[in-house]
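job 3f2a | input accepted
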Amino acid sequence: MNPHKNRNIGADFGAETTGLGFALIRLQALLGGLVFVLLILPWPLGARELDEFATSIFDRTHDRIKKVLSLHDEHDDLPDSSWVPFARDKNRNADKITALIDEVIDVLETSKINELRGLYIEKEEQIALLQEEIDHLRQGKITAPMAEDSSGWTPWVKTREKYQKSIEEKIGKIESASRNKDAIVEKLHTEFNRIGIELSGEQVRFFLSTISEENIFCLCAVFHNVKQISLQFAELARVSGEDVEAAKRYYGMYTMMVKVLLRAHDIFIDEIESHYVPEVRKILKENAVLAEDTKLLMRKEKDQECLDILRLNLEAQGLTDRAGRLYVQHLGEQKRRLQQNRATLYKTYRVARNTYDTAKVAANLVALLNTNIRDLNALQKLQLPDMIPFENRELQSKFEEITLIMERGE
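job 3f2a | predicted structure (410 res):
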């Protein structure tokens, strides 16, 4: 996840905040529902055709997950730490597992949802650039000559009429980009519903307007793709039939996928704690200093026109303060919900891991039994020893006596 990409947190406060509180309630419903995508059962039942992204993702993650499982199986047998350079120990092994899981998460974030989100951000950036160009053109228009003031044919002179034409062309492009954004929102709404997450267009727009939107969209993609891949592991285990070793391996890989979900939650929670909330609080602090400066200027200012401007500034600063506090509240609720989901997910991971460890023992027992059966089959092929010919009845009686003594342990 790269939550800092394509998003300026300061810009979010320029958006309308009146519907944020209502949307925050809906946010809880979304994140609360996410956890049930995979977590109802310790093994997904049934299998179905993977979608276009999941097919590619399965191929790209299979070897990494298999490696994670191998490192996981070896972990308990490693020393806690080692002073020998490059020697394996629990700390280095855990770092390897985390690095591989992060690579898997990067792949799992691939989805139609994130493709559409990228297109939406492109349109946002296009509109922002066009608005900057319009501001520049309006500034140039102020000092430009009128067409009738230009003497003769002077194509190099940009008149007010030419500036206005350029402005209107760019306004048209903004309107076209805005329509494209609306179409993308509708496609996102459809895609969310397709993967089992019911969102309205209003909710989609809300998520797209928040600083944590990338994390939310990526988490949705990770959940969906983990579900798809886990169903594939279930199918592979089913078709493996009586191959206990194969079934154990695929269930182990499923267990590691649950571990991936835990890591995805940890990344999101850390981003909220270490980046989003501190950045919002920094904006609030700077805004508070600015508001105090505005109040000081108002107490000293005598000119009514300047006072009116300062009053408007103070109102804008007050709106920023309210939006910022609401933002902190929103992020805190989001963090709380993620922590709840993670707690439920961790219980599922423990059950999955216990089941996998049980499967490992069973697989080892089956392997031992198979070895014993092979040994027994080999023994069956051995010939019975030749009978000892007794020279007389007395010798036979003594032989039987010795046998009886051995049986009694005397």
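job 3f2a | The longest helix spans residues 304-380.
job 3f2a | closed
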